[in-house]
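[job 4471] stage=fold_predict status=RUNNING
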Amino acid sequence: MSQKYDAIIIGGGHNGLINAAYLARAGKKVLVLERRYLLGGATVTEEIYPGFKYSVFSYVVSILRPEIIRDLSLPKHGLTILPLESTLTPLPNGDYLYRDGDHFRTLRDIARHSPRDAGAYDDYSREMFFMAKAVKYMLGIIPSDPTSLNPKDLMGLAGLGKHLRSLGEEKLYTLTKLMTMSAADFLEQWFESDPLKATLSASGIIGTYLGPRSPGTAYVLLHHYMGEIDGAFRAWGFQKGGTGAIVDAIAGAAREFGVEIRTDAGVTEVIVKNGRATGVVMENGDEIQADIVVSSLDPKRTFLDLVDQKYVPDDLLTAIRNFKIRGSSAKINMALDAAPDVACMPGYGPHLRGAISISPSLDYIERAYDDAKYGDFSRRPYIDMIIPSMIDPDMAPPGKHVMSCFVQYAPYKLREGTWDEKREALGDAVVNTLSEYIPNLKDIILHRQVVTPLDTERLTGLTEGNIFQGELSLSQLFFLRPVPGYAKYRTPIKNYYQCGSGTHPGGGITGAPGRLAALEILKDRS
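[job 4471] inference complete, writing C-alpha cells
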C-alpha cells in the first residue's frame, strides 16, 4: 500500500527545503523530491576537480532572512557565514578603488578619485540603509492585491500604506526613484567618479537582462543592498564549505522536524483530480499521494510543464508565457596552482579575501550589455570574482586555490551558434579579461569550469538559466510576481502551491518565498 503525505515539495533547493521545514515544524508529514543526486538547486557545492570544491552557481550569501535563521536554528546545523568585507576594483591604468571594513580607509581611497564622492558616501550609505529598511517590511508580508475588495487584501493595503506614510515625504520620493530609475541615473545623483559609480551599479544588473542605464535596475541594486541590514549579517559573506553547506544546514533542520528527503527523484507530473492536486508522478512511473503539492520550480515549469494545461486558465497561461525569465549570466570556476597576483595590489593581502570587481566604468558595463542586446556574450564582461579558498582554506588543497567568477553578460539565446559550441570561447573571454589585471592567471590555472545559462538550465532546471527564476523588474514585483492574481503562492488548482524565487519577494538566497508560502499553506489548512 502506497504511503500518503500531508505535503509533497517538488525541488530540493533552499526555498523548497525551507517550505518543507516550516510545514513539518507545524506537524505536517512532508516529503521533498529532488531530481538531482544532491540537494540545493543552484545553491550547491561540488568537487568538480579533485581536491577543489566549487560553489558551482550561487556563491555568496547576504540576504538570508534572519527569522528563518532563528526559526530553524540554522547555526546549530552548520550555518557559518564568513565575512566578505572588501571590494577591489582594479583599473586599466594600474590604479584601483578599494573599499573594506575600515570605514575611514575606504573614504580616503574614494577621496583619491573624488573628494566630493568621499563626502557624499556616508550620506548615500545612510539613505540606502533607510531604503533597505523600508523595503525589508515588504519582504516579510504577503503581497496584497490592490484590485481586490477582499477584507484581508484591504487590510494589507492599509498596513502597507501606513508603512509608506511613516517614511516621510522625502524618503518616499527616494523609494519611488529607486523603484523606477536606472542604477546609473540614481548613482549619478550622488557620485561623479566612474569606478565608484560602476562598481555600485553592478549590483543593479546581477541576474537581469538589463544594462546599468536601463530603468528598473536601481531596485535590483537595493535588493542586493538589503543584506547589509539583515540581523548579524551586515555584509556579503561566504558560507564555510561553500553555498551547498547552507542547504545542508537547512536540510538538517528539515530532517530534525521530520521531513523525508529523496534525491534522484524527478517529478514529471502533478496529479489533478476534480480540480485539485492529489499527488505526483515520478520519472520512474511511480505515483505518490499527498493532500497538497508545492512546486519550488520556476513559474514556467510550475504552470506549463508540471500540470496538464487544461487545468490552467487561458489568461494565466498567456501571462506565464510572457513572464520575463531571460538568462543573462554565467559562472566560471577555476582551480589554481597558486594565489592570483593582482597587478594593482601585488602579493598576498586582505584584498584577496574579498570581492574583485571588473567594473572600471559605467561605459564599460554598458558596452558589455551592448554585446548581449544583439545576442552575443560580452567580449569584455563585467566580472565579480572571489577566491573562496582565501576565506575558507578547506575549499582547496594547501597552497592551492579556487576562484569563482560571476559573469555578465551571457544571453541564453545566442544570435549565432550554440552554447555547446561557444562555451570555451566565453571562458577564454573571461580569462583574457582577468589576465589584464592578474598577469599570472594563465600560468596557474589547473582546471576551468564554464557554466553557461544553458548548463544552468540543464543541471538545475532553472528555465533559461535565470538565477532569480524571473527578472526583478517593476512589472514582476510584489503583487505582480509572478503574475497578477497569483502572487499569494496559490494556483488555480486547489491544493497546488508555488514557493520558488519566481514568487514574492524574488531571488537570491533569502528563503523568504519558501517561508511565506508555508505560512499561507498553513492558514489554508488550519
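[job 4471] summary: The chain has three domains: 4-43+64-80+240-323+465-525, 117-226, 329-409+411-451.
[job 4471] exit 0
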